[in-house]
Specification:
- The protein has 189 residues and is mainly alpha-helical.
- The chain has one domain.
- The chain is built from eleven helices and four strands.
- The strands form two sheets. A two-stranded antiparallel sheet has the order 1-2. A two-stranded parallel ribbon has the order 3-4.
- A hairpin with a 5-residue loop joins strand 1 and strand 2.
- Helix 3 runs parallel beside helix 11 and helix 5 packs antiparallel against helix 7.
- The chain is globular and about 60 Å long.
- The chain starts with 8 loop residues before the first strand and ends in a 7-residue tail after the last helix.
C-alpha cells in the first residue's frame, strides 16, 4: 500500500542526494500515516533541512503576527462594509459560544481552555487586515478546533529536526509571504 502513495518527494541526484518534499499546512496527525516511508527515510538521513519559514524562530511568529495588522489607527470596522462586519462579529460570537463543546477531552486534559484557544486564534481580530480575518475564519471550524494543539506538518518536521539536532533554515522570509497577501485589494479579498 505504501508504494502506491504519492510521496511529494523529489530527489535531486547529486552526491550526497538532496530532496525536495512538498508539505501542506494541516495538523500532522491528519497526514502522517499517509507520508510514504521513502519521505520519512529521506528526512531521517538528511543533516540539513530547510523549511518554507523557520517556524521555530520567535521572530518569525512575531513578524507573522505583526504583518497581519492594519496600519496604525485603523480597525476592521473602518474597512469592511457594515453588513459584513456585523455578520462577522455575530459569527465570531457563535464560534466563541460553541468552542467549549468543540474541544476534545484530550485538549482539556492538557489544560487548554476554550477562552484561551479562542483568544489565541481570534484575539485582536478587529485590528487584522481582511485577508487575514478571512483565513482566520476558515480555521474556526469544529474539525480545526479539535486538532488545535497538534502542530501542522511543517512545524512538526521543524521540531523533529531540532530534536534530532539537524541544521535548519528557511527558504523564505515572512515578508515574502506577507506582502503578497497584504497587497490584495478589497475586491480580491
Amino acid at each position: 500500500q505504501q508504494s502506491k502513495l504519492n510521496s511529494f518527494l523529489w530527489t535531486i541526484k547529486r552526491d550526497p542526494p538532496s530532496y525536495f518534499f512538498g508539505t501542506i499546512h494541516v495538523p500532522y496527525t491528519r497526514v502522517w500515516d499517509f507520508v510514504p516511508e521513502n519521505s520519512k527515510k529521506a528526512f531521517q538521513q538528511s543533516h540539513i533541512v530547510y523549511f518554507e519559514l523557520d517556524l521555530t524562530n520567535p521572530y518569525t511568529t512575531s513578524a507573522l503576527t505583526s504583518c497581519q495588522l492594519l496600519p496604525q489607527g485603523e480597525n476592521l470596522q473602518d474597512v469592511l462594509p457594515h453588513d459584513i462586519y456585523r455578520r462577522l462579529k455575530q459569527h465570531l460570537e457563535y464560534v466563541k459560544l460553541m468552542m467549549p463543546s468543540w474541544m476534545t477531552p484530550d485538549q482539556r486534559g492538557k489544560g487548554l481552555y476554550a477562552d484561551y484557544l479562542f483568544n489565541a486564534i481570534a484575539g485582536n481580530w478587529e485590528r487584522k487586515r481582511p485577508v487575514w480575518v478571512m483565513l482566520m475564519v476558515n480555521s474556526l471550524t469544529e474539525v480545526d478546533i479539535k486538532s488545535r494543539g497538534v502542530p501542522v506538518l511543517d512545524l512538526y518536521l521543524a521540531q523533529e529536526a531540532e530534536r534530532l539536532m539537524k541544521q535548519t533554515g528557511a527558504v523564505e522570509k515572512v515578508e515574502e509571504q506577507c506582502h503578497p497577501l497584504n497587497g490584495l485589494n478589497s475586491s480580491q479579498v
